Amino acid sequence: MIKLDKVWFKYDNRWIFKDLSIDIDGGFILFRGPNGCGKTTLAKIISGLLKPNKGTVYIEDVDIYGSEDAPNILDKVIYVHDKPIILKGSVRYNASYGIMVNRRREGDINYVNKLMKLFKIEALADKDAKKLSAGQQQIVSLIRALAVRPKYLILDEPLQYLDDERRELVIKYLQKIIDEDTKVIVATHETELLRYADKIYVFQYDGRIRPIE
Question: What is the pTM of this model?
């Protein structure tokens, strides 16, 4: 599914990864480890957001930073930040933004409406999204990602602002789309998700990553 071959990456003068080679596979994958150990960095690297200093990143055997086919592969990948990105406008506008700007993707407003109802924010559809609580904004950001039906959904701390009810709804829905052949990667410190993972990758401060099943 995803393969890193001799990847090096640094911020300023600090190397986060040195000569990292690893295969990442499974339906529900967790990146685990303390803050600052590289979970978010790797999530962004495999999402096409941070180019390594050296090395190659493959998704479906395509070099996502060096192949002419990279845009087609990266079009299947959606990354959701740990802090929700909210645009000026209504909740519905924010939730629908992905399908409005990229008509090539499968998705429509009816699906957005279904997701807003499922995650219990349909009553807020016409509200100013910037005035929502952090948890509500997190849900809007997640719906925007789900609406385009990505093949690879990469989430950074998706549960951190959510109440118990919405945490349960999100976990159940992630399980549903995994069963429909979406690959979900979650970077998190949450222990709640451990029992659902097909594979866990444990990150250490020295840049090593240890896969466990």
Answer: 0.93
Reported as a single tens digit per residue, the pLDDT across 68-101 is: 999 999 999 999 999 999 999 999 999 999 888 8
* Torsion region of 42: left, alpha or beta (phi above 0 gives left; psi -120 to 50 gives alpha): alpha
Residues paired with residue 63 on neighbouring β-strands, in sequence order: 58
Q: What angle do CA 153, 154, 155 make, to 5 degrees?
A: 115
> How many CB atoms lie under 10 A from the CB of residue 195?
7
* Helices and strands (H and E) in the chain: how many: 6, 10
Tokens of 107: 């998705």
In which residue are the tokens 């000026």 written? 88
Phi, psi dihedral angles at 20 (to 5 degrees): -85, 120
